[in-house]
Amino acid sequence: WFNAWIGDDYSAPWLEEIVEALKVFNQKGNRVYFQVGNRDFALNQVFLDKFNGVLLPDIYYLNIAGHQYRLEHGDALCTDDISYQRFKKIIRNPFLVAFLRRTPLSFRTKLVNGFRKRSHSDKQQKSYEIMDVNEQAVLSALTDVDILIHGHTHRPAIHQLQHKQRIVLGDWREDQAYILEIDPSSNTQQLELIVWNY
Prior knowledge:
Strand content: 15-25%
Distance between the termini: 13 Å
Number of strands: 9
Structural class: alpha/beta
Radius of gyration: 18 Å
GO cellular component, one term: cytoplasm
CATH class: Alpha Beta
GO biological process, one term: lipid A biosynthetic process
CATH topology: Purple Acid Phosphatase, chain A, domain 2
Order of helices and strands: HEHEEEHHHHHEEEEE
Number of helices: 7
Oligomer: single chain
Organism: Acinetobacter baumannii
Helix content: 25-40%
Keywords: Hydrolase
EC number: 3.6.1.54
């Protein structure tokens, strides 16, 4: 949908089109669930109420056909990226988020654009391994579940870890997204990572 969420008071024609499409989708008996990530953590239920969406917590557990799933954005698994984890702790502080929500939209826009430029620059200087998930963090996340689903690293794949799975979703782009299809009616719990071109 967007590269960064600057506040529930933001509006644009392209966003209104998406909101209207999601309203129709929900009116047909579907539900839209949203889990925030590193660039849209300021999004809250106020925006999702426009189309009857549901905001999930940072870590969400669900059971499908007897299999335990853990869903999360994935940035918390990148524990080797110490500078990012430090930044995340500061920027997601509830007091700072509440303060930023009260600042003018123009200020938040400049702030987010600055963060994005710095993030892009930082990525150029970091190694692939530092920006990827930490193996121990993944194993810890899989302790009480069968399947871990996350994004953030944008390296889509289904990884077998002994008798468990880690599924990495790809980035949402203007013309493409990665979707995980789960067939709960299958005895083998079929999971397929699909590239959706739109």
